[in-house]
Amino acid sequence: MPGHQPTAPLAELRSTGFASLLLRGILAVLLGVIMLIAPGLSVGYIAVFLVVVIGLWLILDGIASCLLASRERKHDRRGWGWTLAGGAVAILIGCLALIFPLSTALAGGTLVLWFLAAGLILRGALELGDRRLGGRGTAIGIVNILFGFFIAVMLLLNPAAVLLAMVWVAAVYGIVFGVLSIVVAFRVRDPRR
Fold first, then answer.
1. pLDDT at residue 51 above 80?
2. Which of 53, 59, 73, 154 is deepest in the core (most CB within 10 A)?
3. Which Gene Ontology cellular-component terms appear in the entry (predicted)?
4. Does the pLDDT value for residue 118 go beyond 80?
């Protein structure tokens, strides 16, 4: 209703929603711009941070597994050797991740893109065979297969370029998402809506 003042809970919800959406939007735009300006550097820092956190977790988890194996051995539990071996492998992988964080991050990113390519090809093949989709399934299936093969060929020819392109896509998404969040924030704040 025009001229109607919102109730206190609604006004509080509008205020909270506005602040949340505005903050999310600003952060998304900033991250997107940073990724566009320095794609390798920004993604490198994020990837290395994640690898270090995962590496530390693997080491701690491996130590805990080794301690558990020691207790299992003391109590003559069968299979303690497998627990010990799993702990040792976790510690080794965690140490390698900490020693070579950038290489681990690049290998992980490349592996994800290979899974994406394989997934697109497989999904496309399944969509070609799905009679329920009719002609739409054929077109969708062909597009998925073509993009899957395109990503695979690009990964073979120049994996760094594919990783960089994915960063640009994420950067543009962040900026578009951020701008839309900011617009929605101001719409939520408007008491006339």
1. yes
2. 59
3. plasma membrane
4. yes
- Residues counted in the chain: 193
Contact 104, 49 (CB under 8 A): no
Establish how many alpha carbons lie within 13 A of residue 191's alpha carbon, considering only the half-sphere containing its beta carbon: 12
In a domain, 170, yes or no: yes
Q: What pLDDT does residue 59 have? A: 92
Task: Find out whether 98 and 62 touch, Cβ atoms under 8 Å.
Answer: no
87 found inside a domain: yes
Residue 12 has a pLDDT of: 66
Report the alpha-carbon distance of residue 112 to residue 16 in Å, rounded. Answer: 37
**pLDDT, position 88:** 93
Looking at residue 10, its pLDDT comes to 62
Q: Where are the alpha helices (DSSP H) in 38-158?
A: 39-74, 80-99, 101-129, 134-157
- Domain assignment of residue 47, yes or no: yes
| CB neighbourhood size of 40 (10 A) | 12
* Full domain range(s) for residue 24: 10-189
Between 116 and 138, name the one with better pLDDT. 116
> What value does the mean pLDDT take over residues 155-181?
82
Please state the φ and ψ torsions of residue 191, each to the nearest 5 degrees. -70, -15
Q: Enumerate residues 6+ apart whose C-beta is below 8 A from 120.
A: 144, 145, 147, 148, 151
Looking at the structure of the chain, the number of domains it has is: 1
Let me know if residue 92 belongs to a domain. yes
